[in-house]
Structures are given as structure tokens and as C-alpha cells.
Amino acid sequence: MRLILIFAVLCFFYNETYGKVSLDIDKKLGTLNKPALKTIKSEDGDVIDCIDIYKQHAFDHPALRNHKIQMKPSVEFDTKKTTTPNNGSSKPITSQIWSKSGNCPVGTIPVRRVSRADIMRASSPSHFGRKTHHRYSFLDNALQHKANFNLTAERLREPLNNRSEAIIVALGFNFLGAQSDINIWNPQGVQAGDYSSAQIWLLGGVSNTFESIEAGWMVNQRVFGDSRTRLFASWTKDAYTKTGCINLLCSGFVQTSTKFALGATVEPVSILGGAQYFIAVSIYLDPNSGNWWLTCANNVMGYWPGILFNALKHSATAVQWGGEVYSPNLMMTKPHTKTPMGSGNWASTRWNRACFHTNLRIKDFSMQVKYPQYLSEYVDEHYCYSTRLFRDTYMSEPHFYFGGPGQNPQCP
Ligand SMILES: *[C@@H]1O[C@H](CO)[C@@H](O)[C@H](O)[C@H]1NC(C)=O
Ligand SMILES: *[C@@H]1O[C@H](CO)[C@@H](O)[C@H](O)[C@H]1NC(C)=O
Ligand SMILES: *[C@@H]1O[C@H](CO)[C@@H](O)[C@H](O)[C@H]1NC(C)=O
């Protein structure tokens, strides 16, 4: 009798908790996977749904209920004047794998379908696709001290909060845009709960509630369920406390592209000692609408509506290029994570071994697109990851190399 009672009580609790989570997952799936007008099965295993552009998840955001969609930017991020050929020896990617299997019709956008298993890997359905809170203390002083700003000293005040960065930073001005050509790699051995990214950040606000818009590629098994290199964009307006997420996994980013899907793979990846590939990424403010546009591979992806932000409404106060590793096993915790950054090779190994950003450009209030005047390099964990800004000759386009293996004898 007593056993039956215990069993009944156990069943009850099991249903209460499991049943509730399961309901939450169904709800989440319902909001993320909008009805498809056409479905494309990609050869890499992804399912791409073509959904009505006016029914995308962005418009579930309370601030965007009556938002009038902007179909294209009113300005361009004009790089023609300043861009020098990318050393002629690396190739841009121009499409994604899934588009070999079909196209999305006009009036729709391609969205990578989320599976139940994807959401179940998150700590909870509400955390799915979200970055975790951290702070950028250096932002508090970023505008005040232009000349003698010591980025290292400022960044050393920041707790690492499970993320390690190797970056180059432009400071001292208000930025209206930034771009780079990001070398594409598939770092091997990114640990299951970690992610590794190569990306651009535009930052505004203050340390504890900083605002950020970001884009590049990442390997993130927890979100995507495999170790492929995937296109991503993300945002927050409160230091990733409550707002923002990766791709379209929360409402916010408005997609307009019919050609590229966020979260889909970026290929081909570069070969060690061989062919090098890159994806051109730019993010810039549309002064007429206040929206921040994202372009990838010369294709306008869409925008973050200005209404999502406070500080970033008018400009960004810092731009970062580089890589980030997220892991609970950094710094003090030993062993250090084995998750690599970039290609997994040290920045000092340079061309066709280390991952790079090149054609670094910013746009400021002069409205000109230019190579940033003040750049500072910074690495959170020198023995695990690295940076090196390098140019062949005084006249040639600089390459910013970054990355490293993570755990190694110097980074135990
Ligand atoms: C430019 O390309 C050549 C090969 O064509 C290579 O040897 C050289 O290291 C490259 N330089 C940079 C900075 O990428
Ligand atoms: C910047 O701060 C770091 C750490 O406090 C220090 O090691 C470095 O010498 C400083 N650099 C300059 C140029 O003052
Ligand atoms: C780091 O990750 C661990 C394990 O997931 C988590 O318990 C901890 O709260 C995280 N710390 C921060 C500051 O995010």
C-alpha cells in the first residue's frame, strides 16, 4: 500500500515537472517555426522553411507589433573606394548549401527549422538560443579617454564570466558601421557545452547593461546540434540578462533576405596550408530609419530595428573584431577547455594556418568608410588564445590573425 502511494506521488511530480517542460517546448516550437509556404531539405541535413516575410518571429516582439517593414537600406556601406583586393588569394563565399536544393519565393524568407531536440539541449526552453550575462567594464570609460586609454587595464577589471576573447578593438569615436572579411574555418574539437565564434561586435551603453549587435560564424553544438560552421547574428540591450539571442531564436531581428538563412552552414571552410575562404560581413546604421543593417557575402540579410535599443539608437562606442570561446571551463577552473578559437592555430602562424579578419573598416560621423585610426589588441587568456595584427608591407592590407588551441601545456 505504502509503495503504491509513493509510486503515485512520484508519478504526480514527474508529470508536473516533465509535463510542464514539454508544454513549454511545444509553445516555443510553435512561436519559432512559423507555417511554411515551401520547405527545402538541404543536403547538409538542415530543413529550411520559406515563411511569409510579414509573419516572421520579429513581429511577435511587443515593440514591433505595428512595425512597418523596411525592405531595403536607404544607404549603402560603401566600400568600393577603400577596399583593396583581399590579397587576391582568398575567395568569398556567395551562397549557402541549402540553396542548391531550392529557392525561397519572393515575399518569403528562409528560416532554419528548429527541432524539439534542439530546444531540449538548452537548460530550459526560455534559455534556448540565448547568450549568458556578462559585462564589458571598459565601455564605461571608452569615450572619455581617447589618447591614453589603456584597454588592457580596463579589460582586466572584467570578470570572465565563462567567455574568453581574442580581439582587436576600435575606440574613441562614435561608430555608424563596421565591416570585415572573416576567414572561414571549422575548428575541430569544440566541446559539447561550449561555442567558438569569429565575429564583429558593435557595442554601446555601459558595462552592466551594455548593448551589442554581433555577427559572424560560430560552432555551437548546443544550439545547432552539430559541429558545423554556421552563420550567426545576435543582439542584446541589457548585457544578455533578459533580452536578445542568436539568430531568429527570439523576436527582434527583421530578416529581408530570400537568399541567406541565419544558422545555416557557411561553406566551404578553409584548408590548412591550402585554399582560403571568407565571408564579408558588415553592420551599419541607416540614418533615415535608425535601423542597423546586416549584410553577409554582399547580400542584405535584414536589420535590427532601432527601437530595440537605447544607446545604440544613434551610434556604437566600440567595435570589436576577433573570436570568442564560451565555456564553463576557463581561467581558474582546471583543466581548461579544449575548445579551440579561430582555426585552432596560434595567430603567429599567420596566412593559411591562423584565422583572420581582413578589410577591417569603420564608418564614423564623417560618413566615410575607413580603416580604423586607433586599434588596440586584447586577449583574455594569453596562454590559451592569441592575436597578431600583421601587414606584409607598409602599403598592404593588414590581416588581423587570432585564435589558438585552448588547453595546451601552457594553458593546463
Ligand atoms: C598573400 O598571398 C600569398 C600567396 O598568393 C601568400 O604567400 C602571402 O602570405 C599572403 N599574404 C597575406 C598577408 O595574407
Ligand atoms: C596598460 O595596463 C597594463 C595592465 O595594468 C600594463 O601592464 C601596461 O603597461 C599598461 N600600458 C600602458 C601603455 O600604460
Ligand atoms: C559559468 O558556467 C557555469 C556552468 O554552466 C554556471 O554554473 C555559472 O553560473 C556560469 N558563470 C557565469 C558567470 O555565467
UniProtKB/TrEMBL annotation:
Pfam family membership, one: Neprosin_AP
Gene3D superfamilies per the UniProt record, alphabetical: Outer-capsid protein sigma 3, large lobe
Highest taxon, organism lineage: Eukaryota
Residues covered by the Neprosin PEP catalytic domain: 157-412
Signal peptide: 1-19
Cited PROSITE patterns: NEPROSIN_PEP_CD
Sorted UniProt keywords: Signal
Family annotation (PANTHER family): ASLB (DUF239)-RELATED, PROTEIN, PUTATIVE (DUF239)-RELATED-RELATED
The protein, known as: Neprosin PEP catalytic domain-containing protein
Source organism (scientific name): Eruca vesicaria subsp. sativa
